[in-house]
Amino acid sequence: MTGTAFVKRNVLPGLRLSLGLTLFYVGLIVVLPLAALAVKAASLGPVDYWSIVSSPRAVASYRVTVLAALGATVFNLFFGLALAWVLTRYRFPGRRLVDAMVDLPFALPTAVAGISLTALFSANGWFGSVLSHLGITVAYTPLGIMIAMCFTSLPFIVRTVQPVLEDLDPALEEAAQSLGGSDWTIFRKVILPLLSPALLAGTSLSFARSLGEFGAIIFIAGNQPMKTEITALLIFIRLEEYDYQAAAAIASVLLITAFVTLAITNWLQARALRYTVKG
Fold first, then answer.
1. pLDDT tens column, 10-34
2. pLDDT of residue 6 exceeding 70
3. 3-state helix, strand, coil in the chain (%, to 5)
4. What is the average pLDDT across 151-159?
5. CB atoms within 10 A of CB 160
6. Which residues in 6-44 are b (16+ Cβ under 10 Å) and which e?
7. Which long-range contacts link 270-277 to residues 24+ away (Cβ below 8 Å)?
8. pTM score
């Protein structure tokens, strides 16, 4: 070869430096606090650890938290998909405003959200007064916890599904229509398989966020032990009592649950992506 020199370049300039800074940041902000939590929980003996995490009050808080998180996640799965569909497929007055409001839970302090939801759903609130006539009580009940979780975790599903919907090739739907497929058949056999990895990711993030939510819940939950006390609040109570080992032990349960959820989701996503590629 004459007159031409080929120089191999990295995709990112300064890759080693940027990688080192990234690993340092992850280690300092993410790994170090989690490691400290694990070490603090491990300082308890197996008997003491199990006694703390399996106490009746802790188990009751797990039940309240997980059931409310599951309910909020299922609701957000359907409502978030419908909202992403409307924002992507239709044009209507105020669409940009609705699209911007989806991100409101990210920008709004969760304590402000909790106070607002409590004011709306209390017995004399705008929504609560109407629901009370129907015999439905929201504030200071598990239903209020679920609504607070719905509010804070909805954007995760909308924002993971929306870009995939925008990038879908219309030719796929047109081809299915030309073959006589109904709208439901096209959605179930053409669109849904392509959306499934994004739906799984958004659902897992929504569930994980609901498990760890605190500020938006404590005002509307009532915080009654064994009834409406969430695990995050119980951890906070143990910290206020300077019982750091018990707080770390209970927090480790949430941490393990979140890790297991994300691991299962990643496995399901990998299977869904293989199915999509083969299809």
1. 555 667 777 788 888 888 887 888 8
2. no
3. 80, 0, 20
4. 92
5. 22
6. eeeeeeeeeeeeeeeeeeeeeeeeeeeeeeebeebbeeb
7. 272/193, 272/196, 272/197, 272/200, 273/197, 275/193, 276/193, 276/194, 276/196, 276/197
8. 0.83
